[in-house]
Design goal:
alpha/beta; Transcription Regulator spoIIAA; five-stranded mixed beta sheet; 12 helices; elongated
Length: about 375
């Protein structure tokens, strides 16, 4: 074996064995102090002379640390060559590098199945929640039909209370929001239309946007944040205090006493709130058109009547009833799933509001695409 002419300097020597195989022998010191100024040079040299079939001899190295071992590991394409001669004290360093590489390989190979598993769990949760919602709706429908055959069992006080909370108590906030949205819509669209000489079409734009989309959507969003959270919190508190279990012991149906009144209250009250929001938004648009474009209130109202078909108005009111039923079902569903502790109560209320808002937006988009030609 040739000796290292440079003493402690890291050297790569190549020779051919008797059987014609390539032997690569390393000499000198292969630690960070000896390598720090020659890393690129040595890496290039190792890659040019060595290959996977070569015999690597590291027994003549004077010293090697993690830096030198890592340099060789990169030259070997991050895997140990088949024929490798090592000193006993150096084997642990290369074993550690092999273990790290294997762990990284295992993590990368597990990453894709983990993502698929997470996606599957998410899909299963959605499917389970959808099944529970359908079951809750079916139970509510059966109880509603049963109450028609026994009018004395109809929870009139609960129904009227739900209508009052959803409708009468939301008049102020929904009217204010509708009025402001009407002004904003008219101001923003009026300026753009006036630039192209089509300011009269602000009446058509405001009418279609308010009656078909903005009125029902604003009312539903306010309802989900206000009434939806209240319904979830009410049922959740009953779970925490044990009232639901007491109702079950007494043979009182929690769906009949809690879900059906809220569902009926939402279906009755929210379309009325939609009509009220539409009217206040139109008033806001009327004020904005007068201040921004100088359109008289009489011309604005006449233009609304001519431009907006009755089908669009009824479509918006019908969406209000659908949105109300959706918010009621989702809020009650999350209320029944709350565990008897305060942390679960807060988390369930938040989930109910977020899920209700998302469901309203998804339903609105689906209805907009399915009935895009209605009233045109």
């Amino acid at each position: 074996m040739p000796m290292n002419p440079d003493g402690d300097k890291a050297v790569v020597l190549c020779q051919t064995d008797i059987d014609g195989g390539l032997r690569v022998a390393l000499h000198g010191r292969w630690d960070i102090r000896a390598l720090r100024e020659r890393v690129c040079e040595l890496l290039k040299r190792l890659r040019s002379v060595g290959n996977r079939d070569a015999r690597w001899d590291l027994t003549q190295i004077k010293d090697i640390d993690a830096a030198g071992a890592t340099l060789l590991w990169h030259a070997w394409q991050r895997s140990r060559p088949g024929q490798l001669a090592l000193r006993t004290e150096d084997a642990a360093v290369f074993d550690s590098l092999a273990a790290i590489a294997t762990g990284a390989l295992d993590r990368s190979s597990r990453r894709e199945p983990l993502r698929i598993a997470q996606l599957g769990l998410f899909g299963m949760r959605i499917l389970s929640a959808g099944t529970d919602l359908v079951a809750l709706l079916g139970t509510a429908a059966i109880d509603s039909v049963a109450m028609l055959y026994s009018p004395k069992d109809i929870p009139r006080r609960e129904i009227t209370a739900a209508i009052f909370r959803t409708g009468a108590q939301a008049v102020a906030i929904s009217g204010l929001v509708g009025f402001l949205i009407g002004i904003v819509l008219c101001y923003l669209s009026g300026q753009q239309l006036r630039d192209i000489g089509a300011e009269s079409y602000v009446v058509n734009l405001t009418g279609f946007a308010v009656f078909r989309e903005l009125g029902p959507l604003l009312a539903a969003i306010l309802n989900a944040g206000r009434s939806g959270s209240a319904m979830t919190a009410q049922i959740g508190v009953m779970r925490v205090t044990g009232e639901l279990e007491a109702m079950a012991v007494l043979g009182i149906s929690s769906v009949r006493r809690l879900v059906v009144p809220k569902l009926i209250g939402q279906v009755v009250a929210l379309p009325l709130i939609v009509v009220w929001t539409d009217l206040t938004a139109i008033v806001g648009g009327l004020v904005g058109a007068r201040l921004q474009l100088g359109i008289s209130p009489a011309d604005f109202l006449q233009g609304i009547i001519r431009a907006v078909p009755l089908a669009n108005v009824l479509f918006g009111v019908g969406k209000g009833a659908l949105f109300g039923a959706t918010v009621a079902l989702i809020s009650c569903h999350f209320g029944f799933r709350i565990r008897p502790d305060s942390e679960s109560l807060a988390d369930g209320t938040t989930r109910a509001v977020v899920t209700g808002l998302t469901a309203v937006l998804v339903l609105d988009a689906a209805l907009a695409m399915a009935f895009s030609h209605l009233g045109m």
